[in-house]
Design brief:
By secondary structure, the protein is of the alpha/beta class. It folds into two domains: 2-110, no CATH class; 132-229, no CATH class. The chain contains eight helices and four strands, in the order βαβααβααβααα. Strands 1, 2, 3 and 4 form a four-stranded parallel β-sheet that branches. The protein is elongated. It starts with a strand and ends in an 18-residue tail after the last helix. The relative contact order is 0.11.
């Protein structure tokens, strides 16, 4: 038996309301983008460990395992690094068997893991041009992990499919990065540690942000470079959204 779940950052309370614990084939219609994967991983980890409604002697995970039930999380867009980290975290906390139960699929994949084989890098990750301003910003971050993901190699991606050329990519990435650093320098004390010049990311990651370029003129996520959506500190965003938060 399969369950197909299309949800916005999986909420296990929503699972209960939708009666997915009854294991019917229900569909939750939401627009879904998985970025870092933290919320999906955290909520699945909690839900898997809850006592099952129909067999209190088992957790939801063991009930699904025994009944050979699979969960398919269907995303509009997913980041490969975030999906990998989600699966890794669940395997570490729940067990390797979770791979047979939970399947995460996306219509559009942003291949942003520079450590995987031949990633498309259809996002923004700069090369290290030894700019002292850029390194000063990076060194100022309190984050201490994943610094090896801050810069891509000059040979990545092997084939350029997002920008008109490798030169154009390099130029625009550095331009957006340095302008983002400049904007954030005007803020003073930045209380939200996840905000970076190239968009939100995991606060413990010593990187410049996710650099996501997946958006429309109606909705620009905050994991995109801040030049697109930041509307304060004497900066007019490239996309001025008048309907943010309006349904």
């Amino acid at each position: 038996m399969n369950m197909f779940v299309n949800i916005n950052y999986l909420d296990y309370y929503t699972l209960c309301k939708a009666k997915l614990v009854v294991y019917k084939k229900d569909w939750l219609r939401e627009t879904v983008v998985a970025s870092t994967g933290q919320t999906i991983g955290r909520n699945f980890n909690e839900w898997f460990n809850l006592s099952n409604e129909f067999d209190k002697t088992k957790t939801n995970f063991h009930y699904l395992k025994d009944k050979q039930i699979k969960i398919h999380v269907c995303l509009l867009c997913g980041h490969s690094w975030g999906i990998y980290n989600t699966k890794y975290g669940l395997i570490k906390n729940i067990g390797i068997e979770v791979e047979a139960i939970l399947h995460i699929q996306a219509y559009y994949i942003i291949e942003n893991n520079i450590k995987q084989y031949n990633p498309k890098l259809n996002n923004m990750i700069p090369v290290d041009n030894q700019d002292p301003v850029i390194h000063e910003y990076l060194n100022s971050l309190k984050a201490v992990s994943k610094s090896e993901h801050a810069f891509r190699l000059s040979t990545q991606p092997h084939e350029e499919n997002l920008f008109s050329s490798a030169v154009a990519r390099n130029r625009l990435e550095i331009l957006f990065l340095t302008k983002g650093i400049e904007i954030l320098s005007r803020v003073g004390e930045l209380r939200v540690e996840q905000i970076r010049p190239l968009g939100y990311t995991v606060k413990s990651h010593k990187t410049f942000g996710l650099g996501t370029l997946f958006f429309t003129y109606r909705n620009i996520p905050n994991n995109s470079p801040i030049v697109f959506w930041w509307g304060n500190n004497n900066w007019r965003p490239l996309f001025v959204l008048k309907n943010r938060g309006v349904r």
